[in-house]
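step=predict obj=YvrJ family protein n=43
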Amino acid sequence: MEQWVTMIQDLGFPILVSFYLLYRIESKLEAIHDVLLSMKLNL
């Protein structure tokens, strides 16, 4: 049981940071996607 707690403590923070960064980048990726679609339609 202690191994699981240690593993969660060691891996929990990097996973949390990764999800936070993905959440922050999501809106920017959607904006880039929309721009690319509008450029495709204008061609």
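step=describe
The two ends are 60 Å apart (CA to CA).
step=end
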